[in-house]
Write a structure and sequence with these properties.
alpha/beta, Amidase signature (AS) enzymes, 16 helices, 11 strands, globular
Length: 488
């Protein structure tokens, strides 16, 4: 196998035994980026010089006998996390030339662990979208079918990993933005519990639901990355206190019986019939392998998408107010007065979806409407959270589809914002409740002569990442879907 298609665990063994070097692995990934990025447009920035320097340092640490999960492993990161001395654009014209003055806490932890950052990946502008088509710098393409989207908003990270441009990637998930692209690209995508991973250095979208997590090829790989980036951070008051579990060891050693709850409403007519049939067969396979399957009802979860799309625009409209051309970002050279200065900067700098969400959020927070919209949405959010808490008194995890269908065609939803928002139908509930959730390869369907992947989602109780990892690992052992690679 070519080094760039290694899992982290495979590369870890080869590096530790001295069969390959981090420099060799990094050069292989950089060559792959050079060959394929013009086709899939997954990377917005490639830092060859920095990557090779980091790889050389990792090799030095390896020769000195140091051993750790991510030492010498090349990765890519979504371009919404601060990276000192490098552009951090959030795929927006308003930050096209912004150079980050410091590293996000996640980046700092990965550096300390010896991981090798290759560059920054494409996304929907400020993470507003589910297809990567809202990027100001053009869409990414799905390596499984170049006429289709890779998902979003972490679509660049997913496309890059699926195509072998790196060994893992970092994304962000506010309402499904790691899990949905993982489903579309046959990857494992983990959204940790809210507060499990520090948000310091993340360009905020929705402060109460933003999370940072890994896209990986296997569940074990995801556990290895989470073990490095998780933990309390004095720079982020929302992070969870206490020690970080050894996720990889727990994944391997925890053998207790698994209780899986199935939300029947997630298998209704809104789900692609082919996916529904496959998921029913998956439940039979899980049961035969020893899992206990139980039907669970989440009565308020059906309101998760409308609740999410009141809270999210409200919070992001506030977060994006800072981009006015005075403190940072695009700055119009000539304006008659302050109002026209703001209009010029924000009018030119933000794309259509960002503007749409700013207007929706400003309206939802405005005098006379905040009680009817934002406060009501927060009240229903608590009911959704309570539904999940009740469910986890009976089961370890919940199983749902990740997406209602496989990857759709580029441009198919350009003129239908509602259809794009409904991409989050199985995903928004876990985000609103702050729960850990993972998408794992669930199978394939044929469409238009192409074989397209789709994912299964496991949701766990707050703080119980190990349970979703354990369930995903249990499913992964039943099949070999994760071993399949796109022909690109």
């Amino acid at each position: 196998m070519d080094g760039y298609m290694f899992t982290i665990a495979q590369a870890r063994k080869e590096l530790d035994q001295g069969n390959i070097s981090s420099l060799e692995l990094t050069r292989a990934c950089l060559r792959r980026i050079e060959a394929l990025n013009p086709i899939i447009h997954a990377c917005l920035l490639v830092d060859d010089e920095g990557a090779l320097a980091a790889a050389a340092l990792a090799d030095k640490r390896l020769k000195q006998g140091e051993r750790s999960d991510l030492l010498g492993i090349p990765y890519l990161v979504k371009d919404i996390l601060m990276t000192k001395g490098l552009k951090t654009t959030a795929a927006s014209k308003i930050l096209e030339n912004y150079i980050a003055p410091y590293d996000a806490s996640v980046i700092a932890r990965l550096k300390e662990a010896g991981a090798v950052m290759l560059g920054k990946t494409n996304l929907d502008e400020f993470a507003h979208g589910a297809s990567t088509e809202n990027s100001a710098f053009g869409p990414s393409k799905n390596p499984w079918d170049l006429s289709r989207v890779p998902g979003g908003s972490s679509g660049g990270s997913a496309a890059a990993l699926a195509a072998g441009l790196c060994l893992f990637a970092i994304g962000t998930d506010t309402g499904g933005s790691i899990r949905q692209p993982a489903s579309f690209c046959n990857l494992v995508g983990l959204k940790p519990s809210y507060g499990r991973v520090s948000r310091f250095g993340l360009l905020s979208m929705t402060s109460s639901t933003d999370t940072i997590g890994p896209l990986a090829r296997t569940v074990e790989d995801a556990a290895m990355v989470l073990g490095v980036i998780a933990g309390n951070d004095g720079k982020d008051a929302t992070t969870i206190s206490g020690s970080v579990p050894d996720y990889r060891r727990e994944l391997i050693e925890n053998k207790k019986p698994l209780r899986i709850g199935v939300v029947s409403s997630c298998l209704d007519s809104g789900l692609d019939a082919r996916l529904r049939q496959s998921i029913l067969e998956s439940l039979e396979s899980l049961q035969k392998a020893g899992a206990v399957i139980k039907e669970i009802d989440l009565p308020y979860n059906k309101y998760s998408v409308p609740v999410y799309y009141v809270i999210t625009p409200s919070e992001l409209s506030s977060n994006l107010a800072r981009f006015d051309g005075i403190g940072w970002g695009l700055s119009s050279p000539e304006s008659a007065d302050l109002l026209s200065f703001y209009k010029a900067n924000r009018g030119q700098g933000f794309g259509p979806e960002a503007k749409r969400r700013i207007m929706l959020g400003t309206f939802a927070l405005s005098a006379g409407y905040a009680d009817a919209y934002y406060k009501k949405a927060q009240a229903v959010r608590e009911l959704i959270r309570a539904d999940f808490q009740k469910a986890f008194a009976e089961v370890d995890v919940l199983l749902t589809p990740t997406s209602p269908h496989p990857a759709f065609k580029l441009g198919a939803q350009d003129n239908d914002p509602l259809a794009m928002y409904l991409e989050d139908i199985y995903l928004a509930g876990a985000s609103l409740a702050g729960l850990p959730a993972i998408s794992v390869p669930g199978g394939f369907v044929f469409e238009g002569g192409e074989e397209l992947p789709f994912g299964l989602q496991f949701i766990g109780a707050a703080g119980q990442e190990i349970e979703v990892l354990r369930a995903a690992g249990f499913w992964e052992k039943i099949n070999n879907y994760f071993e399949r690679r796109p022909n690109i």
